[in-house]
Amino acid sequence: MRVLTVAALSLLAVSCSSNAPAPGGTTTPAPGAPQVKGTLNQVMRGILFPNSNIIFDAQTNDPGKPPDPKEKGSGSASALYATTYGGWEAVENASIALGEAANLVQLPGRSCANGKPVPLNDPTFQKGLAALREASGVAYKAAQAKNMDQVLDAADKVTMACSTCHDVYRDVQVNGKPAGIEARCNPKG
């Protein structure tokens, strides 16, 4: 009886942890497993673009300086974008968001806005993700140090990381003109 109970529990544990097809042939992710919700374009526009802009803004606007209430729109983007977690903390958080977004971008099953799969295994794409992670760390250290000069270096690294992939996958041209969204996620030869 004891052997049968152990065998039954082992079988239950294996079946609960698998991604076995559900009735009807669809695959149901394991509870708590990462799930893709948006396209690469949506992740870029929703996470990477606004958080990169906070880092870029910190090159010229001191995140520690409060906005001047007499001047509409004055002050740093980190103060304007984040009311509760503004200032240098916003730059720190934006830096972390970039590194975490690199993890989200590479989730299996993510597609580009045109429906093509993200080129996860392409060496250029992997190089861009590695550069984004490195830039995230450099930006985070600069924000922790509250050092605008270090943010200049970090912003350059963010720009270079983005260009690694954008130059190949996003900014595709045909006959000298932008090819449009349908040409994205195909590495240029």
Question: Layout of helices and strands, plus pairs?
Answer:
Blueprint lengths: L1 H16 L22 H18 L19 H5 L5 H19 L17 H23 L2 H23 L2 E2 L2 E2 L11
Antiparallel strand pairs: 1-2
Helix pairs in contact: 2-4, 4-5, 5-6
Account of the protein in words:
The chain has 189 residues and is mostly helical. The chain has a single domain, classed as Four Helix Bundle (Hemerythrin (Met), subunit A), CATH 1.20.120. It contains six helices and two strands. The protein has a two-stranded antiparallel ribbon with strand order 1-2. A hairpin with a 2-residue loop joins strand 1 and strand 2.
Q: What is the name of the CATH class?
A: Mainly Alpha
What is the averaged pLDDT score?
Answer: 80
Q: Helices and strands, in N-to-C order?
A: HHHHHHEE
- The total tally of domains equals 1
Q: Radius of gyration, rounded?
A: 22 Å
Beta-strand fraction estimate = under 5%
Structural class: mainly alpha
Distance between the termini: 64 Å
Q: pLDDT under 50 segments (min length 5)?
A: 1-26
Concise synopsis of the structure shown:
The chain has 189 residues and is mainly α.
Question: What descriptive keywords fit this protein?
Answer:
mainly alpha; Four Helix Bundle (Hemerythrin (Met), subunit A); 6 helices; 55% helix; globular
